[in-house]
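HUMAN: Spend a minute on the protein record below and explain its fold to me.
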Amino acid sequence: MDRNQQVSTVLIEIRMEMQAQGLWQSQPPEPAALMSREPFCVDTLDFTEWVQWLLLPRLEEMISRELPLPQNSEIQPMAEEVFKQLEEDTDRLLDLIGQLDKALRVHH
């Protein structure tokens, strides 16, 4: 399986797991919230909103347009911090985000 397929599969699983845990939103945030320059848009979005509205669509678009994917990913540490505060069972989601980090990392 090539890197794009790996990433694509994990993205689908992240989406399904977020939906299963009730962390998926039906209404998008205000467009301005998506324009934040802060890492993970911490000043305007919840982490799960950032994953849903920016991370997943961006990676899906890169795959569909066959653009080079990011070569490094450090999302899991942020996810760990945020998920500590959530009541939902985020173990599987955290594991999937770790898999995404791993799939995006390029070993030279």
About this structure: The domain at 3-25+36-104 is CATH 1.20.1440.40 (de novo design (two linked rop proteins)).
